Amino acid sequence: MQRTAAATQKMTSGPVHLGLPEPKGGCDVCGAPARGRETAHRNGDLSKVSDVNGEMCSHREDER
Ligand SMILES: [Zn+2]
Q1: 31 CA to middle of ligand 1, Å?
Q2: Among 4, 60, 63, 64, which residue has the least CB neighbours within 10 Å?
């Protein structure tokens, strides 16, 4: 049971934190989805999390 919990934690926190685009300071367009992503992550909604990551990535390309 202990092993299962540790493996689950590693799977949920690892990939999400590794590929996480960070919102630029003061940008609402980035900040709003970042907050939604935190909620989705807390709810275990990983498909929503990756949707938001994709949104933020394409938005950041527009900003440059
Ligand atoms: Zn932005």
Answers
A1: 7
A2: 64
CA 10 to CA 36: how far, in whole Å?
Answer: 22
Cα of 38 from ligand 1 centre, angstroms: 17
- In a 3-state reduction of DSSP, which class is residue 23? coil
Alpha-carbon dihedral 32, 16, 41, 23, rounded to 10 degrees: -10
The low-confidence residues of the chain, meaning pLDDT below 70, are 1-20, 63-64
> Which token pair is 31?
């900040």
The answer to whether 63 and 24 have CB atoms below 8 angstroms apart is yes
